[in-house]
Amino acid sequence: MTAKENRNLIERFPFLLPRNRWTGKVPEDYDYSYTELDAMPDGWRKTFGEQLCEELKAELVKAGYLNGYRIAQIKEKYGALCWYDFGATEKIVQEIIPKYEQLSEHTCIKCGAPATRITTTRISPYCDACVPKSPDGEMTGWYHSVPIGERFQENC
User: Fold this and answer.
1) Tens-digit pLDDT profile for residues 124-155
2) C-alpha torsion 15→18→20→25, nearest 10
3) In 68-101, which positions are buried (b, 16+ CB within 10 angstroms) versus exposed (e)?
4) CA–centroid distance for 60 within its chain
5) CA separation (Å) from 150 to 36, 123, 132?
6) pLDDT for res 95
7) Residue 122 and residue 78: Cα distance in Å, rounded?
8) Are 56 and 63 in contact (CB under 8 A)?
9) Sign of the CA dihedral 19, 39, 86, 66?
10) The pLDDT value given to residue 26
11) Burial class (CB in 10 A: 0-12, 13-18, 19+), 42
């Protein structure tokens, strides 16, 4: 995204403004070249990234906590979205974030289409078009995948 697009995104969702994890301050050289949402894999961001932010914002506004909410980390872990914050209202923690963590397990990490496969070594959900294959076209080792329904459950 461009700096202008990121500035607009941060105006809509102030909690996406990157801050120092210990001091809470915005870096002095921050130039809107990135946001906290950039840590979310592309497929998930494309499919539900802004929708998640919209739902969070609505609840944060209701709680009067929009300007106090801080993201600690956004990442993929064991094939699912992990969204960590520095404390929030109970509804956000218990309803909104887990809903999208579960959705991520069934969404292609690369393109955002419904996932049909999950790799078994480096666990990630993929659609048939994006599932990684070895150079010889085989799905062995890191490239091995199983149908999404055979995925084991692992919590963040």
Assistant:
1) 999 989 988 767 666 554 556 667 766 544 44
2) -70
3) ebbbeebebebbbbebebeebbeebeeebbeebb
4) 18
5) 32, 12, 18
6) 85
7) 8
8) no
9) positive
10) 93
11) middle
C-alpha–C-alpha distance, residues 16 and 6, integer Å: 9
Token output for 71: 């993201």
What token pair was written down for 69? Answer: 């909410």
Amino acid present at 118: I
Cα separation, 14 vs 8, whole angstroms:
10
Quote the tokens at residue 86: 């520095």
Reference 148, options 96, 108, 101; nearest CA is 108
Residue 39 to residue 16: CA distance in whole angstroms: 11
Note the pLDDT of residue 153. 46
Checking DSSP bridges between strand 117-119 and strand 145-147, what pairing results, if any? antiparallel
The enclosing H or E element of 7 equals helix 3-12
